[in-house]
Each structure stands twice: as structure tokens, then as C-alpha cells.
């Protein structure tokens, strides 16, 4: 049988390679336009909550996972205090827009989704404070509004929110073909006053130890979603 020199063969056409984005995790970041208007009223309300509480962790949730911070009860946005209801409506509209975007491929034309905040709380973190890694049960989407980022800083990782790769084995091996996975297995988000980060509830995250003279103040919230 006559041998064939494979090096002389050429493809008749380029192969059609399709990319499939399987099991992607979508996160969203937005600057709140109303931040400067709402900030002072919301800060005042947060400190009122702290001053009137007889416990540093008023929610009584995962007390041992938190250090040197105040956490309110889980009804922070259920109030008639100045600016609170306005913020709640804004956040629910934002999350509704986000979930419609990520679910657009599964929705019929004309359908809409409605996000409702079912739990909300504030954190006032002082020097040395942190919150261990955790996820949020009993909801589908979550968010963090950075009311006052204080002295958060990336180089020292002071006060950053660290998000952990949900693909448990993605970083077990690393070579030139896995650079896109990011072998660190984490993504560090540096808080900026006025920013909101929205993420799925299954995504494990933490607040790394914060070192600063100012307080780090955030409002966090959990949402459930239904058809509008």
C-alpha cells in the first residue's frame, strides 16, 4: 500500500467550532445615581439601629463567623425612616432588571420578572472586623450596597469582599491551558461608596479583615423572584 504524506493534506474547509457557555456565574455592578441624596439619611438610620441594639449581632445569625462589627436585624429596609423605602424600591427594580437579563433565554416574549427583598440588614464594621466565608440560603439573588466604603484598599485586601469560585475542582490543576480559570479560585471586589454588587445566592463570599480609622458601612439584601 502506498504511504500518504499527511503533511501535504489540507482541510477543505475550516471546522465550525461552537462555544458553549456552560455553568457561567453572572455578577453585576452598578453605581447608584441616588447615592449622594440618600447616603446621610441611611447612615443616620444605620447608626440608630446600632445604638438601640443590645447585641452586636442583632440578627443572631452565624454569630461566631463575625468579628468587630455590628449587624442589624434582617428587616433593615422595612422602615418608614427617611430614604429607606426609596432605596428598597430602587434595589428591587435593579434586581428585577438583572434577573430578566440572565433568564431572557428561558422566557417567552412579553414575560417579566419581579424581585422582592425578603431580608435586609446593615453592617457597621470597625477596625479589625471581618465576616467569614458564607452563602445566603432561602433566596435566589443577593446584593451589597456600599454606603460608606471607609478605608478599604486592594493591595492589603483590607475590607474587600472576596468571592469564591463555585466550580469546586476548577483550580486543582494549572497549566497553560487553564489560564482562563484563574488558578487563585477567588475574585476580590474592592468596595467603593455608592456601588452595588448583585450576585446569585449560591456564590460563597466573605468580607476580609478591615483595617481603617473610618467605619465600613454596607447594606445587604436577599431577594426572591416571581413572575410579574
Form type? globular
The CATH class designation is Mainly Beta
How many individual helices?
Answer: 2
Quaternary status? single chain
Strand content: 25-35%
Mean pLDDT: 94
Main β-sheet: number of strands, strand sense, barrel status?
Answer: 9 strands, antiparallel
**CATH-level-2 architecture:** Sandwich
SS content category: alpha+beta
Distance between the termini: 71 Å
Protein name: 2OG-Fe(II) oxygenase family protein
Question: Quick summary of this structure?
Answer:
The protein has 228 residues and is an alpha+beta fold. It contains two helices and nine strands.
Describe what you observe in this structure:
- The protein has 228 residues and is α+β, with helices and mostly antiparallel strands.
- The chain has a single domain, classed as Jelly Rolls, CATH 2.60.120.
- Helix content is 16%, strand content 30%.
- The protein has two helices and nine strands; from the N terminus they run E-H-E-H-E-E-E-E-E-E-E.
- Strands 1, 2, 3, 4, 5, 6, 7, 8 and 9 form a nine-stranded antiparallel sheet that branches.
- It holds the Pfam family 2OG-FeII_Oxy_5.
- This is 2OG-Fe(II) oxygenase family protein.
What labels would you give this structure?
nine-stranded antiparallel sheet, 228 residues, Jelly Rolls, 9 strands, 2OG-Fe(II) oxygenase family protein, CHP02466, alpha+beta
Topology:
Layout: E1 28-31, H1 35-51, E2 66-71, H2 84-102, E3 113-134, E4 141-148, E5 161-164, E6 186-189, E7 195-200, E8 205-207, E9 216-227
Amino acid at each position: 500500500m502506498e504511504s500518504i504524506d499527511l503533511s501535504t493534506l489540507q482541510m477543505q474547509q475550516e471546522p465550525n467550532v461552537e462555544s458553549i457557555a456552560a455553568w457561567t456565574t453572572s455578577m453585576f455592578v452598578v453605581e447608584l445615581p441616588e447615592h449622594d441624596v440618600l447616603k446621610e439619611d441611611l447612615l443616620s438610620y444605620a447608626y440608630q439601629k446600632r445604638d438601640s441594639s443590645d447585641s452586636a449581632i442583632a440578627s443572631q445569625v452565624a454569630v461566631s463567623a463575625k468579628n468587630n462589627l455590628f449587624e442589624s436585624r434582617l428587616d433593615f429596609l422595612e422602615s418608614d425612616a427617611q430614604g429607606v423605602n426609596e432605596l428598597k424600591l430602587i434595589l428591587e427594580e435593579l434586581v428585577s432588571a438583572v434577573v430578566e437579563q440572565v433568564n431572557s433565554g428561558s422566557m417567552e416574549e412579553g414575560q417579566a420578572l419581579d424581585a422582592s427583598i425578603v431580608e435586609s440588614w446593615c453592617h457597621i464594621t470597625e477596625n479589625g472586623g471581618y465576616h467569614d466565608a458564607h452563602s445566603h440560603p432561602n433566596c435566589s439573588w443577593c446584593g451589597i450596597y456600599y454606603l460608606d466604603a471607609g478605608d478599604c484598599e486592594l493591595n492589603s485586601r483590607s475590607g474587600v469582599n472576596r468571592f469564591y469560585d463555585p466550580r469546586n475542582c476548577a483550580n486543582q490543576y494549572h497549566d497553560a491551558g487553564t489560564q482562563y480559570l484563574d488558578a487563585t479560585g477567588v475574585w476580590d471586589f474592592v468596595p467603593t461608596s455608592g456601588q452595588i454588587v448583585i450576585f446569585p445566592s449560591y456564590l460563597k463570599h466573605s468580607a476580609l479583615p478591615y483595617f481603617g480609622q473610618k467605619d465600613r458601612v454596607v447594606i445587604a439584601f436577599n431577594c426572591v423572584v416571581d413572575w410579574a
